[in-house]
Amino acid sequence: MNSEGIVRPNDLQRLYADHHGWLQGWLRHQLGCAHNAADLAQDTFLRVLARDHDVATIREPRAYLHTIAKSLLVNHWRRRQIEQAYLDALALQPETLAPSPETRALIVETLLQVDALLARLPEKVRRAFLLSQLHGLTYVQIAGELGVSERMVKKYMAQAMLQCLTLMDDA
């Protein structure tokens, strides 16, 4: 990157040439799939490119790339876990109710957005929301489960609902 904050192509090319093979090999070992490893390796370098960082100043390039790739890997596994849970639930439905592939993709994307939203919530807020929405517990029951007052559960639910509205506005 020069003084104007622009990545110099030679620095990025050198980083890519020196470490792409290693990174892809590490990802292939983690995933057991060369295609997914290639995709995540490319995504890692795209993240490097998107960051405002002087590539030439990276002292430990493999550690730097490993950190980015590990984050992408966790996201990949989480996505697969959510997709599999959805497919398992879908398998329990009559075949006549099966959504189209496009609808399935939209539903999985929505589930991923909800998962990301829930991950941003504080622990007790998330638990209160899930106990209410998934388990159908009353606020009194949730208060007992979490060891807080019913008034606090109402505050937690208001926080969770505000996040849901924010997600809907962003969509």
From TrEMBL:
InterPro entries noted in UniProt: RNA_pol_sigma-70-like, RNA_pol_sigma-70_dom, RNA_pol_sigma70_r2, RNA_pol_sigma70_r4_t2, RNA_pol_sigma_r2, RNA_pol_sigma_r3/r4-like, WH-like_DNA-bd_sf
Pfam families: Sigma70_r2 (PF04542), Sigma70_r4_2 (PF08281)
Cleaved signal peptide residues: none
Domain RNA polymerase sigma factor 70 region 4 type: 112-164
Domain RNA polymerase sigma-70 region intervals: 15-81
GO biological process: DNA-templated transcription initiation
Domain of life: Bacteria
GO MF annotations, alphabetized: DNA binding; sigma factor activity
Similarity annotation: Belongs to the sigma-70 factor family. ECF subfamily.
Name of the featured protein: RNA polymerase sigma-70 factor, ECF subfamily
